[in-house]
C-alpha cells in the first residue's frame, strides 16, 4: 500500500506523508474478492480494516439467517480495530466482499500505538468514551428490554388469567350440573314415566332457543321470581335451583304449563330439573369453549408478535403485526382508551423483519397511551403511498412542544418521570425503521392530535435483503 493510495482519503486530512507511510508500513494490503469473508462477527476485533476501493457487505447472523445490515462502498470507510481501545472489542458483523478492491488491514495494537503517539489526548478521550458509551448503552438497553418484557408478561398473564379462571369455574360447575342431570334422570326412571312422556318433554326442551340478548339484572330477577313462584305453587321443592337456569334460557310460564301437562304428579320436579340441567350444561360448555378459544387467541397473538418459528425477513401483512401488538397491550387499552382502526383495503404485503416492526408498534402505541394518560382515542391508519406503505399511529393527548418533537428520536432523551422511561423507545423505533427497513419515521404534533408516521418500502432495496 502506497502513500498516494491513502492521501486522497478525507479520513487522513491533517496527517503528514511520513505518518501515512508509517501507517501503511504497519498494515498490509488485502484484496477484496466477492463472496469471501474478510472478518467474522463475534471474533476479537484485532484488525482495523480501511476500505481503499471496492465494496464490502456487513452481515449479521439473525435467527437462522445471514442479514445484510450495512455496506462499506465509499473509500475511507472502516470497520473493526476496537481492541485498540477495548480488550473485549469484537467484530459486530461479518465483512463479506461484494465488489473486488483493496483494504488496508492494520493490527489493533499498531493503531493504538500510533493514535497514542500522534493524538495522545484524543486517544484517551476515545478510550474513555468507548468504555462509557458501551457501559451506558448496554445497561440502558438491558433495562429497556427487561421493563418491556416485564410489562408484556404481566399484561399477558392478566389476559390469560381471566379466561383460564373462567374455564376453571365453568368446569367446576359443570361437574355439579352433570351430577344433577344424571340424578334427575334416575328420579324420572324411578317415577316410571313413559317413553312418550320423555320424548314429549325433550321436544319441549328443544323448542327453547338461547337468548339473543341478555336481559338487564332487574328484569332477570323479576323473571326468576315469577318462575320460582309458579314452581312452588306446583309442589316443586327445589325451585331455587331450577328457576335461575330456566330464566336464563328464556323459559316462560306458558312453557311451564305445557310441561306440567306432560309431566304429571311427582315426575314434574325431576323432569324440570333435568331440563334446567341440560340448559346449565350447555351454558357451561359454551363458557369453557369461549374461554379456551380466548386462550388460544392469546397464544396465537404471542406467536405472531414474537414471530416464533419464522424467518426473520418475510413477506407480511402489516395489519397482522398491528393487531397482535394491540392484543399484547390490551391490558393498557381498557377503560378510557377508544381504538379506531382504519386499515386500507389496498395496502399490499411488504418485505420486512416482522418481529422488529412489532417492537416499533409496541413503542409507538405504548407512548400514545401514556401521552393520553389512559383516556382518549388511539387511531391507527394504514395506507399505500406510491412504493411505500404508511402507518399512522395518533393519539388525542396534549401534543409535543416543538423542542421536544425535535429531540424525540435522540437516544436517552425522555420527558417521562424517573423510572417510567429510558429514552430508548423512539430511538430503537427509528433504528429499526430507517436502518433496517430503509424507511422513515416522523412526528406531526399539535394539541389533541399527535401522529407518529412510519413509511416502509413495499420491497426492500437489494442491499438490505437477507443474504442467501
Brief account:
This protein is an alpha+beta fold and 468 residues long.
Description:
The structure is a single chain. The protein is α+β, with helices and mostly antiparallel strands. The protein folds into three domains: 3-118, Sandwich (Jelly Rolls); 160-296, no CATH class; 311-467, Histidine kinase-like ATPase, C-terminal domain (Heat Shock Protein 90, 2-Layer Sandwich). It is 50% helix and 22% strand. The chain is built from 13 helices and 14 strands. The chain has helices spanning 3-7, 17-26, 108-118, 120-190, 195-207, 217-233, 239-249, 253-262, 268-306, 318-328, 354-371, 402-407, 425-436; strands at residues 28-32, 37-39, 47-62, 65-72, 78-80, 94-107, 313-316, 336-343, 350-353, 375-385, 388-395, 440-446, 449-457, 466-467. Strands 1, 2, 3, 4, 5, 6 and 14 form a seven-stranded antiparallel β-sheet that branches. It has a five-stranded mixed β-sheet with strand order 8-10-11-13-12. The chain has a two-stranded antiparallel ribbon with strand order 7-9. Helix 3 (108-118) crosses helix 4 and helix 6 packs across helix 7. The longest helix is centred in the N-terminal third of the chain and has 71 residues, at 120-190. The relative contact order is 0.08. The model is unreliable at 418-423 and 463-468 (pLDDT under 50).
